[in-house]
Specification:
- With about 140 residues, this protein is mainly beta.
- The protein has one domain: Acid Proteases (Cathepsin D, subunit A, domain 1), CATH 2.40.70.
- The protein is about 10% helix and about 40% strand.
- The strands form two sheets. The chain has a six-stranded mixed sheet. Strands 1, 2, 6 and 7 form a four-stranded mixed sheet that branches.
- It starts with a strand and ends in a 14-residue tail after the last helix.
- InterPro entries: Peptidase_aspartic_dom_sf.
């Protein structure tokens, strides 16, 4: 997912999200389970996403307040565009006994509850990842 600021009256553009394979299924090997207020949340870690996103359905279920934002146009990994509106601030997310606080734009996600993008990954610093060890 990639996000862009828009002129007044138009949705923002150039934000990217890719949470599905070619068959419309979530890539399970890219997802992790976390907790928000002791509620399980399925998370996709996506280094191609510029921002963090949270499912509109999850936000509504939790009854959270949403800060109004300008519409953000999102370029999805499958080439389609969508629009996100609203942001949840200071979400306390528990990942493997470690608590992090994030902001996330509200978006209609399917099959997952949250996308953690570069805005979450970048502060983690340098990492060494050997994807070949998965073979």
């Amino acid at each position: 997912m990639v996000l862009d600021d828009l002129e007044e009256g138009e949705a923002e553009d150039n934000n990217e999200v890719d949470n599905k394979d070619g068959e419309g299924e979530v890539n399970a090997e890219c997802s992790i389970l976390g907790l928000v207020n002791m509620v399980p949340i399925l998370i996709l870690v996506d280094s191609d996403a510029t921002h963090n996103f949270i499912s509109k359905k999850f936000v509504e279920t939790m009854g959270w307040q949403v800060e109004d934002t300008k519409p953000l146009r999102i370029n999805l990994g499958d080439g389609f565009n969508a629009v996100a509106c609203g942001k949840c601030k200071a979400i306390k997310l528990e990942l493997e006994a470690r608590e992090v606080t994030i902001d996330a734009f509200m978006f209609d996600l399917e099959g997952i509850d949250m996308v953690l993008g570069i805005s979450w990954l970048a502060p983690l610093g340098k990492m060494l990842i050997d994807w070949g060890c998965k073979l």
